[in-house]
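ligand=alpha-D-galactopyranose
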Amino acid sequence: MTTARRGLLRDKVTQAYVDIYGTEPVMLVAAPGRVNLIGEHTDYNDGFVLPCAIDYETIVAIGPRTGSQVDVVACDFDNERDSFDLDTPFAKQAAEWKNHVRGIAASLADKGLTLAGANIAIAGNVPQGAGLSSSASLGVALAKAFTELHQPGALDETELALTAQHSENNYVGCACGIMDQLVSARALAGSALQIDCRSLETKPITISEHLAVVVIHSGVQRGLVDSAYNERRLQCEQSAAHYGVAALRDLSIEQLEAQRAGLDSVSYRRARHVVTENARTLSAAEALIAGDLTTLSTLMAQSHVSMRDDFEITVPAIDRLVEIGAEFLGTTGGIRMTGGGFGGCVVAIVPKTKADALEAWVNQHYQTPDQGNALFFLCEPSGGVAVL
Ligand code: GLA
């Protein structure tokens, strides 16, 4: 399944490259999307996250060209083209995908790498606007492709992830944390990755072969994401300032309550989400290791409630979808919204033997806003960025 899907993508991007540039690419680089199992909006609070790379990915085909021009074709946007000169400063484009490519080139230059002209073709199968990090997979794949073409080995995986985040923050214009890029760069097949977003230390957490990671798209496209995201981030920083800590990661639950006076209720609830979510994320990793699905399902349910009531990033359709899934699973598996919020997907961790029945149950009880069935993605926990 996984191999067949990658094969199709590989053929598509290679064919586009050959058609347009008249020669074979010298390298193909693949980077995965991700689903976050638990630990939402904790990364930019220096906290803990537990994402898992998935077998939906972006592949970049690259080859050299003389001069300082970069030519790009985006297979997923009707073979739309872009062309820019590496010696010309970054200029924001109307098409978002172009900002990702130009932003990565600019970010690598910011890091002191010397790039030269390149021909590029891009194709991906990470659903866009679903909260599965299609952008991060694009950014990480591009950063690796440029680096390996011009200065092989110049950046390790963490530096590639930081470069991709730098591009998002400074060129694309999203104040995202490091989770998506880091897991896309450093994930190990068969595992989720526990990340300490302060030290950037990672710990692979094996996902038992008996478990399925199921992603279910609610059918609600994510909207107003950037403004709401940036607002949450600001509220977290304000709460941290109230408590006199560098980041909410440093706040204990006792301190959260004891020094609450003078903090407005919204900021208090934002802080409570982050503090409790950090604790849940660490416990969830332990539960996964122990194969304790009962505890995992409780933690994921609590995480969802906290996102709904304290962080206020869910929407009614997503709440309903989680409720329906939980009715079926009971304590035999966990389910919660995943990603930045305001639509998109939920993630469920269930025994493989239950995955089909879960799908049937959801189809029977849930309808997307346009009266259809929710889309199911049965995901393999996958490895990080790689030259194919
Ligand atoms: C988006 C961001 C991440 C993270 C999540 C929420 O995916 O890119 O950095 O903040 O939202 O957990």
